[in-house]
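Hey, resending since the last one bounced:
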Amino acid sequence: MLPEETNEDRDAGIPEELHSFAEEGPFRKCTICDKELEHLGLYEVQKVYRDKEVIFETAICQACGEDLS
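The structure tokens again:
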């Protein structure tokens, strides 16, 4: 029997450049609907940089992303 995956294990698989600058770690909630991303499956991360500084970042769940289309 495999051990249950923890949040720490899951976070280790997300590249640091996709972590939230504001939250100082992986994104936890959808920027639009505020639901926990962990339970929603697919989501996208968008970041805008000026030089090397993050000036905008967002994480959007698949459902909200489809609504924006």
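The chain is about 20% helix and 25% strand.

Sorry for the duplicate.
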